[in-house]
Amino acid sequence: MSNLENGINGMSLKNGEQSLTAGSGYIAGDQGQSSSNVAELKELKQTIFDILRDVRDPEKPETLEELNVLTEESISVTRLKGNQLMVNVEFTPTVPHCSLASLIGLTIRSKLQQCLPEIAKVDINIKEGTHTTADEINKQINDKERIAAAMENPNLRELVKACTSDVEDTY
User: Fold this and answer.
1) Coiled-coil stretches, from where to where (predicted)?
2) What is the CATH number of the domain that holds 121?
């Protein structure tokens, strides 16, 4: 897989098909930061949304963007100490009792792990008040050991791969 140079302090994304465009919207932690740093974080936020926008729903043919499960406003990026990036993704399941919410979170995480450099820390959560068991699912999709165990299941791994592969790759 080729790297895409994104021009953010020499950091590269591990995805050769994404293009960068300046984004808009709130970037967490942008108070007191230089305008160039804020611009870099906005650009990275847009790039992350571009990476995730085509992730497909596990049981429907639509993408998470088309179903309004994921929007650009649901992503925030901050720069932590040591130049590490913190990426927060908040998604909204289509129904409050969605049985596949943890799988949606897993597909988002998998796609980001494929594309983001190792210096990025990722936190994925269900938007507050949009799912009946959000707290439990949030713990699952942010627990490295549970994620690793889930990805050992070949059926689950194939389902995640199908949801995260490019549309052109599935034909």
Assistant:
1) none
2) 3.30.300.130
- What are the two backbone dihedrals, phi and then psi, of residue 149, each rounded to the nearest 5 degrees? -65, -40
Q: What is the predicted pLDDT for the residue at 83?
A: 81
Residue 21 lies inside a defined structural domain of this protein: yes
pLDDT at 167: 56
Number of domains in the chain: 1
3-class secondary structure, 50: helix
Both tokens of residue 22? 């300046």
**Cβ atoms within 10 Å, residue 95:** 10
Q: Specify the pTM.
A: 0.79
Query: Scanning the structure block, which residue is given the tokens 């129904």?
Result: 95
Residue 95 and residue 10: Cα distance in Å, rounded?
A: 41
Classify residue 171: in a domain, yes or no. Answer: no
* Residue 63 within any structural domain of the chain: yes
